[in-house]
Every structure is written in structure tokens, then in C-alpha cells.
Amino acid sequence: MALLDELIFKLFGLSAPTGLEVIFAGSAVIGGSLFLFWFALMMIGGITADVFDGILGTDIDAIGADASFKALTFQGIMVFMMFFGLGGLVVLKSDGGNSIAVFVGGICGFISMYGTGKLFEFFIGLQADGTVYISQSIGARGIVYLGITEGEVGQVQVDVDGTMRTYPARCLNKTAIDTGDLIQVKDVVAGTLLVEKI
């Protein structure tokens, strides 16, 4: 207890701590220590994944979006404990009452937990799927890459969301379209574009 008294209580400026001060200081220290430990693991995990990715040529996702989202509850608890303890200690050090200190500590903890949740929600919202669906090509214009014969499948290149894509295609009116002709996509059936010559 003497070591704890010297290291922790003197850090917060507490010479003869009361029971509530011990709770606040302990909450701040535990929350802060868990946060630093979690942050170190995130950094080591990210560096380790990059090293293995470079050496072995494998794709290791140490902390992906799903892992961050599942850890949100743990992160929220860490932040709540840290700010609950710090907020309560600030009120106690400024000669506020015990009930006011608990109230302010609770408010600080909940606000920080809510803010952390919104921050992670924002970061997860920044992730882009990047998937291009073949149905997005309807109405797009392009060029015949591999000639389409009567009733058969050829290939066309169309611009979908700013990217040139190559898809199998049939002519809508079952006629032939030569390589290099301009087309427009009218429909998609079973992964094949139905196109019409422009």
C-alpha cells in the first residue's frame, strides 16, 4: 500500500486520500493503463502485420474494421473509467462535495464514452466498399472489345463509376456488332450485358 500511495496518490496530489478519492484515482489509473496497453497492442499488431505482409507476402489483417467495432465496448469502458476518475478527482480537489464529484465524474465518463462511440462510428463510415455491381452499367456507353456475332456472346468495355470494365455482352436485337463499334448497355441478364449499337 505504501508503494501505491507513493506512486499513484502523489501523482494526483493526494496526501491522505479518502475512500472516494481512492475510487476515483483507481478508476483513472486502471482506465488509463488499459488504454495505454490497448494502444500499444494496436501499434504492435499493426507493425507485426505489416512486417509479415512484406516478408511472407501474405495479407494479415491484425485489427480490421470488424475487430475495431467489436472492441468498441471495451474501448468505451476504458474511456469511461479514465474520465470518471479524472472528472471526480478534479471536483474533489476543487473542494466540491462527494455527491457532486460522483455526478460530474459520471457525466464526464458518459460523455467521453458517447464521444468515443461516435468517433469510431465516423471512422467506420469512412470505409468504402469499392464493389462495382454489374447492374450499375445499365445506361453506360462503351465499345465492343470482342465482336458480338448473331445470337452469341462477345465482350464490351464500358465506363462504370469512372472505371473501364470488361463484361460479356449480347446484342439486344440479336444482330452482329463489330469490334470497335460504340454501344450502350440496355439491360443485364444472368451476368451478361444486353447492348445496342449507337
How would you describe this protein?
This protein has 198 residues and is an alpha+beta fold. It folds into two domains: 2-125, no CATH class; 134-197, Nucleic acid-binding proteins (OB fold (Dihydrolipoamide Acetyltransferase, E2P), Beta Barrel), CATH 2.40.50.140. The protein is built from five helices and five strands; from the N terminus they run αααααβββββ. It has helices at 2-11, 19-56, 65-70, 72-93, 98-125; strands at residues 141-146, 154-160, 163-171, 182-189, 192-197. The protein is rod-shaped and about 95 Å long.
Mean pLDDT: 78
Rounded to an integer in angstroms, the radius of gyration calculated over CA atoms is 30 Å
Give the percentage of residues in beta strands.
15-25%
Number of domains: 2
- Low-pLDDT regions: 58-71
| Count of helix runs | 5
Number of strands: 5
Encode the helix/strand succession as letters: HHHHHEEEEE
Residue share in helix: 40-55%
Structural class: alpha+beta
Shape: rod-shaped
What composes the largest sheet?
Answer: 5 strands, mixed, barrel
Our measurement of the CA-to-CA distance between the termini, rounded to an integer number of angstroms, reads 85 Å
Order of adjacent strands in the largest pleated sheet: 1-2-3-5-4
Identify the notable features of this structure and list them briefly.
198 residues; alpha+beta; OB fold (Dihydrolipoamide Acetyltransferase, E2P); 2 domains; 5 helices; 18% strand; rod-shaped
